[in-house]
Write a structure and sequence with these properties.
12 helices; globular; binds S-adenosyl-L-homocysteine
Length: about 400
Amino acid sequence: MREINTIFLRPGKEKPVLNRHPWIFSGAVSRVDDGAADGSIVSVRDGSGRHIGYGYYNGRSRINVRMLSFGDRFPDRDHLHHLMIVARDKRRSSGVISRTNAWRAVFSEGDFLPGLIADSYDGHLVIQILTLGIERMREDIIGLLAEVFSPSSIYERSDHAGRSIEGLSDRIGQVTGSTPEEIPIVENGLNYIVDVHRGQKTGFFIDQRENRALVAGIAAGRSALNLFSYTGGFSVAALAGGALEAVSIDVSEPALTMARRNAGLNALEDRSAFIAADAFEYLRDNVLPHDLIIIDPPAFAKNKESVPSACRGYKEINLQAIRKCPAGSLILTCSCSRFIGMDLFQKVVFGAASDAGRSVSILYAGQHPADHPVSVFCPETSYLKSLLLHVD
Ligand code: SAH
């Protein structure tokens, strides 16, 4: 018999869990068994003691429990195996795997495995363990990733800021096999190098794959300005799509060095410029001859409390771009803050357009691609919002 500790929900707080939302905030919890250790599996019960499902507990986090299963299904190795098989099948059936060698294999809550990210780069997996609960299952998780995805190697990039809240220190290094520092990938027929050891996150922003294809399709004859360019993904896409030039702006010198190499890999460096600058200052201080502008900043809102200041940041950057761009410009503007929904993001863009006094229409609205599935039970898994704007 398993010894499973229990947490009890306050009366009336069970509805989201019954609706399979995976997060239980501390405010919803009335009592926790004394023996429930941080990181351990607990049975979640409603106010009257009825079992709802299982999750892992961490009293240090505002999210006390992240659910792993509902009803009587215990989240043992077999269950994790099932979730990983389903994750792999989603990537296969959506066709992602056959189109590119850079795809997200496991997307945390989006694959019902809260706290685990795994990205596949040319057959090498780069993983991020974000929570203590997953850390406790580390051995099983790594064994299952190896079994289900048959990677050439597994490398860990658990250097995510959220780990300290969980009581974890960073962990970076080789897990299985040998992962090259630089991995060549092909996305939308274009070549990029991913520095999985030193790059940001797991090395590449895979989630913008379809937006980069969109940019390639609308870039012909335009002058592109790629704000927050990182390693130049959108710049390469724009140039390959026939842009006359692409200017990449980022504060990170290493990112721009890689952006230059990525342009070179695709024989596109002659129409490229790379400027190390703060994107806000750059927009403020320069005239904008560019009629294709990409705005893909880091998440300005890291939590609910920072939403108002994040909105001011999004408004400012969009306002400057909308105000200064030539008539007929296209702007692809993005927010990857999970706390800012599409409605709010659209309101921010409305505010920017209104203050700029320009006529702006939305030509397309998008989100992240199929290898970042959205759980219908957890709207927060839909984090990337993008709008293609036309400015008159
Ligand atoms: N569009 C990129 C991903 C952008 S990630 C792609 O397709 O790959 C966000 C980038 O913004 C990071 O590279 C980070 O270095 C950069 N950044 C953060 N703050 C910035 C600022 N104030 N000005 C310019 N770049 C910034």
